[in-house]
Amino acid sequence: MIEKNVSTCLVSVAALVAGSDAVAAQDWSGLYGGLSYGSNSGTSPAQPYDYDEGYQMDGKALGLFAGYRWNASDRIVMGVELAMQGSIDVSAPAAYSTDDYSFENMTDVKLSLGTPVGKALVYGFAGMSSGTLDAYGTDEYMYNASGVNYGVGVDYMVTDHMTVGLEYITRNMTGYVSGGNPESQSNFNTISLRTSFKF
Q1: What domains can you pick out in the chain, each with its CATH number?
Q2: Do 84 and 109 form a contact (C-beta atoms < 8 A)?
Q3: For position 13, what pLDDT does the model report?
Q4: Residue pLDDT, tens place only, 95-145
Q5: What's the average model confidence in pLDDT over 85-94?
Q6: What's the pTM value of the predicted model, to 2 decimals?
């Protein structure tokens, strides 16, 4: 009888340890920061000339991000993040194909809600975005744009302090367009590979 009770206790302790390890493996709370590499597509939200075909966001760019997550419960992880992308190439319409355009200072603020799945965190988010179209490589022709963002992502916990992930974001932004329509709303998208470290 005593041996049976001891065995039962040992099994219970083992189950508790295993359970605590599972919870620890899904602990996404804390500060984090990292690097991203994104591929952009869609129409520039700011355009110096009004053309139907628009100015296309078709460049790839490195980025930085930092944020904070907390476990609202065992199954719900909430977070806030600030992300910035480097210079993004912009293709001008055929009439101005030789001009050099780029989208600068691309900044996203995001609020996220996710759920742990094993060692992964699947999440959705929404927030605000802003940036500037540099039309000719000088400070004289800079066109600002701002709007909302939303998207989905997944992070995988490689170690307790390192994750790798994939994220897709859509930005619905409004910026200056010359001609009869001074404000034009457009979407552009970014799919990014991300690596982050938790502090």
Answers
A1: 28-198 (2.40.160.20)
A2: no
A3: 34
A4: 666 566 888 899 999 999 999 999 999 999 999 999 988 876 666 677 888
A5: 83
A6: 0.80
3-class DSSP state for residue 65? Answer: strand
- Give, as one character, the DSSP assignment of residue 5: H
Q: Which two tokens stand for residue 13?
A: 């302790």
| CA geometry: angle 46, 52, 56, nearest 5 deg | 50
42 φ/ψ sector (left φ>0, alpha ψ -120 to 50, else beta): left
The residues near 127 (Cβ < 8 Å, ≥ 6 apart) are: 108, 109, 110, 111, 148, 149, 150
**Two tokens at 60?**
């790839």
Q: What 3 state SS string does 128-181 have?
A: EEEEEEECCCCCCCEEEEEEEEEEEEEEEECCCCEEEEEEEEEEEEEEEECCCC
H or E element that contains 12: helix 2-25
Instruction: Tell which residue, 30, 32, 35, has the closest CA to residue 194.
Output: 35
Token couple for 171 = 């930005």
